[in-house]
Amino acid sequence: MSPLWKVAAFVAQSVAVGLAIAFVVVLVRPELVNRGGAAATPAKSSYAQAVAASAPAVANIYTEKVLGTTRSLPGVTLRGRELGSGVVIDPRGYIVTNWHVIRDADEVRVQLADGRVAIPKLVGADPETELALLKIDLPNLPGIGLGRSDNLEVGEVVLAIGNSLGLSQTVTMGIVSAKGRGQLGVTIFEDFIQTDAAINAGNSGGALVNAKGELVGINTAVLSTAPDQPTPEGLGFAIPVNLVRGVMEQLVAHGRVIRGYLGVDTVDLPASQARGLGIDGSAVQVTNVTGPAAAAGLKPGDVLTHINDQRMLTQQQAMNLVASSQPGQRIKIRAAHPDGKAFTAEAVLEERPPSGGG
Asked: What is the domain range of residue 322?
């Protein structure tokens, strides 16, 4: 081998050994690579973009209610002041909030994130879902992207934005703890998203957004306890945006929400009791009938198992399905008499009265 080839082989071998040593150093002591140079910038785990995309559409809502006049100071009016939040859900000026935020208020003011203040008009309210729709007349209003609450997954990161404790716009972070929460006694139609993102007084009506900044729910409630017991942490509830979207569309179109009405009062029938009627799994037992249900031949004691071929497991599920239908719609019912004899029936729904009912 010529001297030149020997030198080339030596250099190549040295480079290979040097690269191997460098790889081991980087693997074991990565901080040594930047010694004497600029410090490495750690990767950020941030939801700032989600907040930037959604927070401008979250407004503060301030209400006043006249309580009366004082006896000691005639002519002095006592006023009660409350606070809440709202979301500009449409750049045309529509703001969705909770019904309890504005209920019985004599004066309502909306303050946008950019500082502008407006007196809203009430488009309509739906106490059965705890939602209300306001409208303001201001130019260049921010909007918010609407996500899909049915695509949310337990464990997914969410942000709660609202007028927490009157501190103006505040953002808290948590995860989706559960979906489909009901029987909380908050509203008639309950299908709440449960989250551990901190929700305090003033957050009601505010936004629950996903990591993309899309609206997935309207923050509504926290669990209350006895006055002498601490408030449980990590138990906040939001109305899913899919429900919000439907209610808003009806309030805009009609000023109220039109729902189907079957005319039944029901209770949940546990699987252990339903088994005695030959029914596999839980079902829904009728306790009272009127209107369309009576015309269809349903009687107290009958057990509903299917509506429009969908298996009914809880009274909330049955009520939601009927309510989501329109008056005049014909539904198919599969049920069993108290003696276990199965039967089918059809009913033509009426409009759900303001007093409620199934």
From this structure: 260-351
